[in-house]
Amino acid sequence: MELVPKRRLHLLSGRSHLGLARDIADCLGVTLSDPNLVDFANGEIRPRFAESVRGADVFIVQTHCRANDQSVNDSIIEQLTMLDAAKRASAKRITAVCPYLGYSRQDRKSKGREPITARMITDILAAAGADRIMSVDLHSGQIQGFFNGPVDHLTAVPLLVEYLREHAGTDFVMVAPDTGRTKVAEQAATHLDVDVASVYKRRAKDTVNAVQVVDVMGEVDGRMCVLIDDMIDTAGTIGAAAEILLDKGATEVWAMATHALLSGPAVDRLKNSPVTKVVVADTLPLPPEKQIDKIEVLSVAKIFADAIDAVFEDASVSEIFGGENQT
Fold first, then answer.
1. What is the 3-state secondary structure (H, E, C) of the chain?
2. Which CATH architecture has domain 9-155+301-326?
């Protein structure tokens, strides 16, 4: 007797960014499954899935951020408990969908006696039951090698490029806010056939979230400039880069980023900065107090939905991006 297995897809979400998970479900044409998360009086979390996931392809969405009275660590633990629940419920394949992967900037030792926390996070996801990880615009591509399994590294660059094509034309300069993002700026510039420049910065010794912009490499005089980065955290880099670009003769400065962390003084800095427009993706929730007029949010729901569908159908994820997500 030969049995043809019935393939099932279950999409579940933690509570850090339910809005994005619902949008992904809408794009896929599926119903978001209920993880039935419970908070105990002592702060512990327990999921109990409302339906069977035995033999199913399970995708568990959770962006690692501070939201809804949860810390970054709370959001990670919540996803871990859901991964463990799926494993113990006999799911066939489990994918940890992390629109923003927590601790991704701690991907190497910059000094002695420091952890490589990004590696630890991927190890914990695997130990909890993740067979694969899906994320977008990791801070460093090497993080893919930390996980001993498939990592679907998506990119929001096509989304940002399409926005620029519709709203900025082609008469501007794409600017990397530091040398580490030059490849991303060049990739976007190639699609739009525009020039590229780069800001040179250095970090103050023994400090965090403090940078010193030194110079600009490239011609920006008399041109509009668009800064493109993977994230905006405290907005120190973006603000300092915008100021030096204007000092060098730029007529206007926009900023674009995939992840809008907007920590601490970020919103006030953006309000007071010379940046006229800030375009970000919705990998992290943007609470009302951070929704200022300068900020425009683009949805990555379809990017994740297409990638989830490809994984479920055992098709190529990189073909969605023409292979450019691997660069």
1. CCCCCCCCEEEEECCCCHHHHHHHHHHHCCCCCCCCCEECCCCCEECCCCCCCCCCEEEEECCCCCECCECHHHHHHHHHHHHHHHHHCCCCEEEEEECCCCCCCCCCCCCCCCCCHHHHHHHHHHHHCCCEEEEECCCCHHHHHHCCCCEEEECCHHHHHHHHHHHCCCCEEEEECCHHHHHHHHHHHHHHCCEEEEEEEEECCCCCCCEEEEEEECCCCCCEEEEEEEEECCCHHHHHHHHHHHHCCCCEEEEEEEEECCCCCHHHHHHHCCCCEEEEECCCCCCHHHCCCCEEEECCHHHHHHHHHHHHCCCCCHHHHCCHHHC
2. 3-Layer(aba) Sandwich (3.40)
